[in-house]
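[User] Could I get a sequence and structure tokens?

[Assistant]
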Amino acid sequence: MRDLYVLYLALRDSRVTWPPKLIAALVVAYVLSPVDFLPDWLPFLGFLDDIAIVPLGIGLAMRFIPPAILAEHRFTAAGRFKVVRRWSRAGAILGVAVGLVAVAWLISLGVRHFRQ
């Protein structure tokens, strides 16, 4: 979340050139587009392209931003998201736990289905 805010701040900065702005626009357009490489209705596979493309696009856009400008905006974002960082670990643990329970449930459904 903080990197996304850093990218937002950097893209609004007039010192940033057009390549990172174009990459960020393409990533946002892909996320908002109803057309995906893998359809979202496919269990687990549907969101893999979103999970891969968005962070890679953000990282690629940040590579084109000068380090001094990026450091300036990271400092600004660190002050804004200081409290959120503590909760993001708890959210990540909860998300992984829910994901593991969902995978275990799907496996148990599959085992029951193939036993019959």
About this structure: The chain is about 80% helix and 0% strand. Residues 82-115 form the longest helix (34 residues).
